[in-house]
Amino acid sequence: MKLRLKYLFIFLFLFPLLASAQNLITNTFNRNTISLNGTWHYIVDPYEVGYYDYRSKPYDEDSPNSINAFFNDYHPKNKSELIEYNFDESATLKVPGDWNSQKEKLFYYEGSIWLKRSFDYKPSQKNDRLFVYFGAVNYRADVYLNGKKLGVHEGGFTPFNFEITSIVKPENNFLIVRVNDRRLIDAVPTVNTDWFNYGGITRDVKLIELPQTFIQDYTIQLDKNDPNTISGFVKLNNASSSQKVTISIPELKIEKEFEADSDGYAKINFKAKNINYWSPESPKLYQVFISTPFEKLKDDIGFRTIKVVGQNILLNGKSIYLRGISLHEENAMRGARAFSDADALVSLTWAKELGCNYIRMAHYPHNEHMIRMADKMGMMIWEEIPVYWTIDFTNKATLKNAENQLTEMITRDKNRACVIIWSMANETPISDSRNSFIIDLVNQTRKTDSTRLVSAALQLHSDESKPGVKIVDDPLGNYFDIVAFNQYTGWYGGSLEDAPDSKWQIAFKKPVIISEFGGGAVQGMHGTKDERWTEEYQDYLYQQNLKMLEKIPGIRGMSPWILADFRSPRRQLPNIQDGYNRKGLISNNGIKKKAFFTLQSFYKKMAESFK
Asked: What is the tens place of the pLDDT at every residue in 493-512?
């Protein structure tokens, strides 16, 4: 007798191999959506029995003739058949959320977990098309609806969507996602990082209702070289003929009509007067409406220019100093991936109290709640993709992955005034392959969005023939608008006593940003300024580094490492780190360390200098 072992998700027999996520739909916050957040059932699959057969062959490689075969498996007529999985009786996780912080047994788990959400669907209005949208899934997501594979997405920090118009039913829909967060040598990021690898559906999931022809994407921003001109484009999805597109900004008494071509593309360009420009001091957002014969879409957009002239960064034509801090996407007090407006408010309020006008969002795109709240609160943002340390720069597939994550980040956030810098990488070692890889990303960025600055966090080095001189000459500096680099004097080498007398040799006459500096301290541990891990040592490190850094020619900002202590499996020193990187100015209990107030005082001085 042949035993039918129906392993987890045997439905993968049914569908052909890999479809990619579809072109990204922008501004989901202001569209007609239905949330699928909440309780999802999950099954842990460490042996991948739901994806591979016992010969390690992916089920996706086979496809029977009828989709009904799946329903026979999922709802067997013969109740005596052996079924070795049951979603509806399995445990649950909250979505959005990481599994590590929700389930103690999964704290260090890396691998596949399958999540299922059932839902009914009744259209809230007359719409012709329906999409499912994920804010982010870390790291690889295989997505299925009602037994049909929608596709795959790779990258743990950017959004993606699939159309489900022809698959969704009025009742008993089941959405299943295989999430795999295993670190891979050819992935972006690669296996070696200094942050916690939170697995799961970590951001919002929603259904988006749209007409047959809809506004898929647009850019509406100030022209970089003309503060009285608004330019950009509108891209329609499924435009079979030319269509009228209207842009209106009621507060500016603007209403302009354009024509999208048969491919759905309309170029936007018009004059605007009396604009109240967005800035940290006055984060003005205008209601902008994009209308077609099929829909009307609203967005809240700030208008500002950001450019470099010589060694100055000019916001709306005025030289600025970026009083910043670095930040991971983590709720420090919850020890979990941040994902909500409430999480964003905590971090941004701390940064405001510190005196910041700028945040480096390391080392990957943070969630859209954070970006939109920064827009409202007047916090300038550096956004980065996780090309981190030593990824596989010779691998064409790795480059394509990085390019895709870069495109998704820019597509999502290019209409947010707060974003002023796109960053390509962090602390990557110099090589020909590395140079070619990142230059490709720079060129793609400038082609996709020319209105913002481009940079990356580089490293400095020294030369025995030049004692006491810190050298920055990474050839990538030639391709960036801003020269940014990380340095850890007093923590990873170098004398704090001698730091203020350091000399600098920077090969580029461009604005300089210190993208990282800092040192660790356990909140509440006190001693002398010479005792590592004490608040006094960290505070002295900040005092000496600030004296050193403010002397750098052309320095126009900094983002010390880091706002709050965060989880990192690399950091295991007992009774000190305990799985946390302790370089935060705020503890994982939300308590400020001494160095917080030292930096706060410095930023108050710099704010006065650049009024």
From this structure: 999 999 999 999 999 999 99
Q: Report how far residue 286's alpha carbon sits from residue 288's, in angstroms, rounded to the nearest whole number.
A: 6
Pairwise CA distance, residues 222 & 286, whole Å: 13
In this predicted model, what pLDDT tens digit does every residue of 20-35 receive, in sequence order? Answer: 667 999 999 999 999 9
Amino acid at position 485, single letter: F
Residue in 304, 305, 219, 301 with CA at minimum distance from that of residue 268: 219
Q: Which of 148, 157, 179, 197 is nearest to 46 (CA)?
A: 179
Q: What are phi and psi of 197, to 5 degrees?
A: -90, 75
Q: Which residues have CB under 8 Å from 57's CB, separation 6+?
A: none
Dist. CA 575–CA 194, nearest whole Å: 19
Q: Is the pTM of this model over 0.85?
A: yes
- CA quadruple 43, 46, 47, 48: dihedral, nearest 10: 60
* pLDDT-based confidence at residue 80 (cuts at 50, 70, 90): low
Other CB atoms within 10 A of residue 602 CB: 20
**What are the DSSP E strand ranges found in 181-305?**
205-210, 214-223, 226-237, 243-249, 254-260, 265-271, 286-291, 296-301
- The order of strands in the sheet holding 265-271 is 214-223, 226-237, 265-271
* Total residues belonging to the chain: 611
Continuous segment of H or E residues that includes residue 41: strand 38-45
Q: What is the C-alpha separation between 102 and 107, in angstroms, rounded? A: 8
3 state DSSP class of 418 = coil
Q: Alpha helix locations (H) across 378-501?
A: 396-413, 432-448
| Beta-strand relationship, 312-315 and 318-319 | antiparallel
